[in-house]
UniProtKB/TrEMBL annotation:
CDD domains: UDG-F2_TDG_MUG. Keywords: DNA damage, DNA repair, Hydrolase. This is Mismatch-specific DNA-glycosylase. It comes from Streptomyces filamentosus. Residues 1-160 form the Uracil-DNA glycosylase-like domain. NCBIfam families: PRK10201.1 (NF007570). One of its GO terms (biological process) is base-excision repair, AP site formation. SUPFAM superfamilies: Uracil-DNA glycosylase-like.
C-alpha cells in the first residue's frame, strides 16, 4: 500500500436515499458498484454494502463528492458539486491515496471544473494523488454494462499496482 495507506479512494457522487438510511455506500439494490468492484478484481468475492469496511483490508477506501442524500444525483446543484470538490480535495490531501477514483464522469467534470474530462486517467492531480474518472454504476447509466464497467475498473486496478484480489489476503502466486 501507499504511504497514505490507500491504493484507491473510490468517490461516489452523493448518498442515495437507501445509502443514507443504511449508512452503507451504494446500498440501493440494482446498483452495480459492488458487483463491478468484484468482477474487476478489486475484491476476491462480491461484498455487500454492509461489508464496506472490508475495503480497507484491500487498500481501498470509499467516500462521496457531496454529503447531502438525494433520490437522484441530478437533484444536486452546481454549487454543491464545487463545494464537494473543495472538501474532497482537502480529504485527499490528508489521506494521500495513490488514486482518487471518481465514480461518475459528470460529477468529476462539475466538481473540478473539467468540462471536457472523459472516462479514464486524468491529467489533474491532487498533491501526489492521481485521478481516474470511472463510469457511474447506477442502474440509470445504461451506456455501460457491468462487463464494460468491470473492464474500466480493472484498468484502474492495474494502474494502481494491485494484483487481482485473492480469497486469502496472503497474496498467492497467480498469473
Amino acid at each position: 500500500m501507499a504511504e497514505g495507506g490507500l491504493a484507491v479512494l473510490f468517490c461516489g457522487i452523493n448518498p442515495g436515499l437507501m445509502t443514507a438510511a443504511t449508512g452503507h455506500h451504494f446500498a440501493r439494490p440494482g446498483n452495480r458498484f459492488w458487483p463491478v468492484l468484484h468482477r474487476s478484481g478489486f475484491t476476491p468475492r462480491l461484498l455487500r454494502p454492509d461489508e464496506q469496511d472490508e475495503l480497507l483490508s484491500y487498500g481501498l477506501g470509499i467516500t462521496n463528492v457531496v454529503a447531502r442524500p438525494t433520490a437522484r444525483a441530478d437533484e444536486l446543484s452546481r454549487e454543491e458539486y464545487v463545494e464537494g470538490g473543495r472538501l474532497l480535495t482537502a480529504k485527499v490531501l490528508r489521506l494521500k491515496p495513490r488514486w482518487l477514483a471518481v465514480v461518475g464522469v459528470t460529477a468529476y467534470r462539475t466538481a473540478f471544473g473539467e468540462p471536457k474530462a472523459a472516462i479514464g486517467p486524468q491529467e489533474r492531480t491532487i498533491g501526489e494523488t492521481r485521478i481516474w474518472a470511472l463510469p457511474n454504476p447506477s442502474g440509470l447509466n445504461a451506456h455501460w454494462t457491468a462487463e464494460t464497467m468491470a473492464e474500466e475498473y480493472a484498468r484502474l486496478r492495474v494502474a494502481a499496482g494491485l494484483p487481482p484480489a485473492t480469497d486469502p489476503p496472503e497474496d498467492a502466486h497467480g498469473s
